[in-house]
Amino acid sequence: MFVLKRQDVEIVNVQNPLNRDQQLPILRYQGQTFRLLDVFGDNREEAMSLWRDLTDNKGKACVLLEEPHRYSVWGRVKLENWQVEQTPTQTGDRLRVQGCLLFLQTVAQEVEDFFGSRQSNAFRQELLGIFQRGRFQQGENAEALMAVLTQDPLDTMQVPAWDDGKLQFLLGELHRVGTSYFGNTSFVETAMDALEELQGDKGKFLEWLRSTPKGKLWLQS
Description:
Layout: E1 2-5, E2 10-16, E3 19-29, E4 32-39, H1 44-57, E5 62-67, E6 70-76, H2 91-133, H3 142-150, H4 164-182, H5 186-194, H6 202-210, H7 213-220
Parallel strand pairs: 1-5
Antiparallel strand pairs: 2-3, 3-4, 4-6, 5-6
């Protein structure tokens, strides 16, 4: 039905009505909604084959989404009675979450590299407490937290649904706990270096940090 680029669509997360603990990525385009069917990496031919089979042979309304190094196929779905989570739907919102994820993962890795597995486990327990106090969905248990610590921060399909309030809370608490573990703010430099993964969007993320109270902590360290 459609072959679209990432800039043409909006991707949000919704709660799976059959499994309240699972979120599903939903693609929105011109008032229609599509559920992810399959991801093919950079194998365009295989993605096109599935897309054509569904649209031409089975009469399904589908989207073939082209992204750098990845193709995915989405099938149209109605979201009636599905709970739409508060989700970073705009590019700027996604970018803020991605940057904070890079900070979170980098500091956690720094603790493990410098202090070993025992301290790393203790640090993750502190993070779990932070997530629970901040009422993050990913604070339900250690497995949910580990999923956040190991996911690809640049995968826009899996960006957590964190609003600015949660991001400010996370930035402040992560800076506090990091300072407690290292005895200084040396971890900030490595976290800032990790922002290079944002490439051309790094400047936009830093601009947002400068405009927020907790973001300034990371710039002043």
